[in-house]
TrEMBL record:
This is Uncharacterized protein. It comes from Desmophyllum pertusum. It comes from the Eukaryota. It holds the Pfam family DUF885. Keywords: Membrane, Transmembrane, Transmembrane helix. The chain crosses the membrane at residues 32-58. InterPro entries: DUF885.
Length: 600
C-alpha cells in the first residue's frame, strides 16, 4: 500500500547545478531556492493530523458512555459512515491514537492541549526543555510507541480508508518524534547545532507558549498567582540557557554548521525575536507574545488591596511592574544572551563550507576557530550517553520526515540524477530554440547570459551597498524603515509585488476545473492573500504564511527583501502557483478546516 502524504509541512529544495554560479561567491542566496510553508504553524498542523484521527475515536467513546454498556468490541453495529471498522476496534487503534495524543501533550507542555482547562494548564505548563536527557526521553517514548504500533498485527485491508490513513500518519508522526523534523531526535544529534535557516525548531517559537500558556491562562488573582508566573517564566530562562549549553556541546563534539548556515540560522533567530535583537533585553516588552501580559485587563482581578500589599513587600513595585520585570529578567535577558552567543561566540566555531557543509562530514575531527582547525583540540564525537555521532545517519533520520516513502538518501540522490538526464536535454533544446543557435555550447552560454541579465530581474541595476549591508539589515527591518532607508529596494519590490498580484489573479481561474468551489465538497480557500516583504537577510525565496479556518486575517505571500537581485521574473509563475493557488494556500486551507472540524 502506498504510504500517505505528510501533511502540515513541506520543504522543497531546488539547488541549481553547482557548476552554474550566480551572483556572489560562496553561498549565494540565488543558488538555493527554497520554498516553504512558514514554520510557525507547522507544529500545530502536525498535531492536527493525529487529532483528526483521534476525533473518530472520541466519537466512539461518546457512543459507548451514552449507551452505558461495557465495551464489547465486536457487537456494535457498523451503521454510521463515520463509525469505526471492526478491525480498528479489534486492534485497539482508537485507544492507541488517543494515547499518542495524550503523550504528545504530556511531553510538550508548552504546546497547550486545546481540551485542557485553565486549571490544568496552570499546573502543567512548563517551557520548552532542551536538556539532552529530556530530548532523549521524548525520542525514546516516540520510538517505543512506534514499535508498539509496528508490532500490532492489523489487517489494513479491513480498515476503512480514513483509518488506514490515520495508521500510516501516526507511524510517520512517531518515526519523527511527534511529527517534527529538527532538534527532536536525540540520536541524530542535530539538537547541538543551533537554529537553522527556517528556524523550524522549538527554540524559535517560544512566544506561542508565552502568549497562550502564560498570557491567556495565567491571569493573576492574588500574590501566589504572581509567584506562579515567576516560577513558569523561570522555566523559560532555564530552557534557553540549556539551549546555549547544547550549542557549546556541539562545538566540543564537532557538530557545527558551516559559516553560511550559522549566519542563516542567526538571521532567522533574530527574526523570531526581532525586538530583542534590535533593542536588547527590554525589547521583549515590544514582542507580540507578551502583549496580553502587558494589557491592563490582565490585572483586572488584582484588587487595589492586593496590589498595595505586593508593593509594600516588593520595594514599591506594583504587580504589573513586577511582571514586566520578570519578563525582562526571565525571557528578554536569556533570549538576548542566546542571540549574542549565536552571533558573536558560536559563529567563530562554524566551519568554512568547503570543509563541511550540511551533515555529511559531521562530526568534525577537531574544533574550529576563526576558520582554522585547532589540531590540538580533538572533538569528542559521541552523544552524552556514549553512542557515536554520525552526520550521514542524522541526515537520513531527518530526510525521511520530508518523504512519503522509505527511500534512502542515496536513492533520492540517484533519482535526482535520473531526472537530470531527462530534463537537461529538454533545457538544452529550449536554449537552442530561444537563442536561435544550433551549437549546444553557444546556445547554453547565450541562454545563461539571458537568464542572468538584468532584464530578468525587477531591479534594473545592482542595489546600492548601503541598502545591502548589516546596517541596512537593521535599519530596513520593518516596512517603515525599508521605505525610508532602502528606497531602491522598496521601489523594485513594488514591481515584484505588481507582477505577483497579476500572476496570482491570472492563475486562479485556471484552477476552476480542478476543485469544488461550492457545496459540501468545497475545498478552495476564500481568504485573500497579501504581499509582504520578508526581512530576513538570509531568506532566499518566496514563502507562504497561512490564514486560519475562520479567515480572520489574510494569508501572506512573503517576498525576500535582501536578495542580491529581485526575481528572476521567469520564476514567478511556477513559484506563485506553488505558494498561493493552487499551492500552499489551497493545501493549508484544507488542513485548517480539517483541524477545525476535529475540535468542534
Ligand atoms: C550574472 O550577472 C552578474 C552581474 O549582474 C555577474 O556578476 C555574474 O558573473 C553573472 N553570472 C553568470 C553565470 O553569468
Ligand atoms: C489565588 O487565586 C487562585 C485562582 O487564580 C486560587 O486557585 C488560589 O487558591 C488563590 N490563592 C490564594 C492563596 O488565595
Ligand atoms: C537596553 O535598551 C534600553 C532602551 O533603549 C536602555 O535604556 C538600556 O540601558 C539598555 N540596556 C542594556 C543592558 O544595554
Ligand atoms: C475578573 O475580572 C473580569 C474583568 O476583566 C471580571 O469580569 C470578573 O468578574 C473578575 N472575576 C473575579 C472573580 O473577580
Ligand atoms: C503600577 O505602577 C506603574 C508605574 O508606577 C503605573 O504606571 C501603573 O499604573 C501601576 N498599575 C496599577 C494597576 O496601579
Ligand atoms: C577552503 O577555502 C579556503 C579559502 O577560500 C582555502 O584557503 C582552503 O584551502 C579551502 N579548503 C579546502 C579543504 O578546500
Ligand atoms: C586550541 O586548543 C587548545 C586546547 O583546547 C587551546 O589551549 C588553544 O587555546 C586553542 N587554540 C586556539 C587558537 O584556539
Ligand atoms: C546537443 O544537446 C542535445 C540534448 O542534450 C543532444 O541530444 C545533442 O546530441 C547535442 N548535440 C551535440 C552536437 O552535442
Ligand atoms: C543609503 O543612501 C541613501 C542616499 O544617500 C539614503 O537615502 C539612505 O537612507 C541610505 N540607506 C541606509 C540604510 O543607510
Amino acid at each position: 500500500m502506498e504510504p500517505l502524504e505528510t501533511t502540515g509541512s513541506e520543504l522543497d529544495t531546488m539547488v541549481d547545478d553547482s557548476k552554474v554560479k550566480f551572483g556572489r561567491k560562496g553561498m549565494s542566496r540565488e543558488r538555493i531556492v527554497t520554498i516553504v510553508v512558514l514554520g510557525v504553524a507547522v507544529i500545530i498542523f502536525i498535531v492536527g493530523i493525529v487529532l483528526i484521527a483521534v476525533a473518530a475515536a472520541a466519537d466512539k467513546k461518546d457512543e459507548e458512555s451514552s449507551s452505558g454498556t461495557p465495551v464489547k468490541p465486536t457487537s456494535i453495529p457498523v451503521s454510521s459512515k463515520c463509525s469505526l471498522s471492526e478491525e480498528a476496534r479489534r486492534s485497539g487503534l482508537p485507544e492507541f491514537l488517543s494515547r499518542v495524543k495524550a503523550t504528545y501533550y504530556k511531553l510538550h507542555p508548552y504546546d497547550l492541549d486545546p481540551d485542557a482547562t485553565t486549571k490544568r494548564i496552570k499546573v502543567e505548563y512548563v517551557a520548552y526543555d532542551p536538556t539532552p536527557s529530556v530530548i532523549k526521553h521524548r525520542t525514546d517514548t516516540a520510538l517505543t510507541l512506534l514499535k508498539e504500533i509496528n508490532d500490532k498485527t492489523i489487517n489494513t485491508d479491513a480498515l476503512k480508508p480514513r483509518e488506514r490513513k490515520a495508521l500510516a500518519q501516526v507511524k510517520h508522526y512517531l518515526q519523527h518524534m511527534f511529527g517534527q523534523p529538527y532538534d527532536v531526535n536525540y540520536y541524530a544529534g542535530d539538537w547541538m547545532m543551533g537554529p537553522n535557516l527556517f528556524c523550524w525548531q522549538p527554540i524559535c517559537s517560544l512566544g506561542y507558549g508565552v502568549s497562550s500558556g502564560l498570557g491567556i491562562n495565567h491571569k493573576p488573582y492574588n500574590a501566589s498567582d504572581v509567584k506562579l508566573i515567576e516560577t513558569k517564566l523561570k522555566t523559560h530562562k532555564a530552557g534557553i540557557l540549556q539551549y546555549i549549553d547544547n550549542m557549546k556541546m556541539g562545538v566540543r563534539k564537532g557538530m557545527v554548521r558551516s559559516v553560511e548556515d550559522c549566519q542563516a540560522g542567526t538571521d532567522a533567530l533574530k527574526e523570531s525575536y526581532k525586538r530583542i535583537s534590535l533593542y536588547n533585553e527590554t525589547g521583549v516588552l515590544q514582542e507580540w507574545f507578551v502583549a496580553t501580559m502587558l494589557d491592563p485587563d490582565y490585572y483586572s482581578n488584582i484588587t487595589e488591596e492586593i496590589d498595595n500589599e505586593w508593593k509594600n513587600k516588593h520595594g514599591g513595585k506594583n504587580v504589573s511592574e513586577t511582571i514586566k520585570e520578570y519578563l525582562v529578567t526571565y525571557l528578554g535577558k536569556p533570549i538576548h544572551q542566546l542571540l549574542s552567543y549565536v552571533e558573536n561566540e558560536h559563529m567563530r566555531h562554524c566551519v568554512p563550507s568547503n570543509v563541511s557543509s550540511g551533515l555529511a562530514n559531521l562530526p568534525l575531527k577537531y574544533v574550529w576557530f576563526d576558520g582554522k582547525e585547532n589540531t590540538s583540540w580533538p572533538t569528542d564525537p559521541k552523544l552524552p550517553t556514549g553512542e557515536p555521532l554520525n552526520g550521514p545517519k542524522a541526515y537520513s533520520k531527518i530526510m525521511s520526515y520530508f518523504t512519503t516513502n522509505a527511500m534512502t538518501p542515496m536513492e533520492v540522490h540517484e533519482l535526482g540524477k535520473k531526472q537530470l538526464d531527462i530534463y537537461y536535454p529538454m533545457v538544452v533544446e529550449i536554449a537552442r530554440e530561444v537563442t536561435g543557435e544550433t551549437d549546444n555550447d553557444t546556445a547554453i552560454t547565450k541562454f545563461r547570459n539571458k537568464l542572468n541579465s538584468s532584464e530578468s530581474y525587477f531591479n534594473s541595476e545592482p542595489f546600492p551597498e548601503n541598502e545591502s549591508n548589516k546596517e541596512a539589515h537593521r535599519k530596513c527591518s520593518d516596512i517603515d524603515g525599508a521605505k525610508k532607508h532602502c528606497p531602491k529596494r522598496w521601489a523594485a519590490l513594488q514591481l515584484w509585488f505588481d507582477e505577483a498580484r497579476k500572476v496570482m489573479s491570472l492563475l486562479e481561474p485556471k484552477t476552476i476545473p480542478f476543485f469544488y468551489f461550492t457545496g459540501d465538497k468545497a475545498t478552495t480557500p476564500t481568504c485573500p492573500i497579501d504581499l509582504l516583504p520578508d526581512m530576513n537577510p538570509s531568506s532566499g525565496a518566496q514563502s507562504y504564511g497561512s490564514s486560519n479556518a475562520d479567515c480572520t486575517r489574510s494569508a501572506k505571500y512573503n517576498i525576500p527583501f535582501f536578495l542580491n537581485n529581485f526575481g528572476p521574473r521567469y520564476q514567478e509563475w511556477s513559484v506563485n502557483a506553488h505558494e498561493a493557488r493552487p499551492g500552499h494556500h489551497t493545501e493549508v486551507h484544507i488542513i485548517s478546516k480539517m483541524h477545525f472540524i476535529s475540535f468542534h
